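User: I'll paste a sequence; please echo it back and then give the predicted structure.

Assistant: Echoing your sequence first, then the prediction.
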Amino acid sequence: MAKKTIMLCCAAGMSTSLLVTKMQKAAQEQNKDVAIFAAPASEADSKMSEKNIDCILLGPQVRYMEDDFKKKIEGKNVGLAVIDMQAYGMMDGAKVLAQAYQLMENR
């Protein structure tokens, strides 16, 4: 089992799938023991109950849901942020992975 788990959420879980692949590649290159997966925002609650999630990153297109997610993770030790729009647009897996690790370290 991975030491850390990162969930990416977007409207349908499709656009973040490519980013997950790039983040996994970056994690492997950096020897980071992390599980990364994408899910539609509508499935976030069930995923959070199934897995011990350390960090949730929201796709820029669901930025409006950030307050809802803050309520979902209240009292839990989970990092939450909207993915940097430039990194998302460039599908920069290493930069988004660094964003996630910064969140997890600052909890």
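The mean pLDDT is 93. The CA atoms of residues 13 and 40 lie 4 Å apart.
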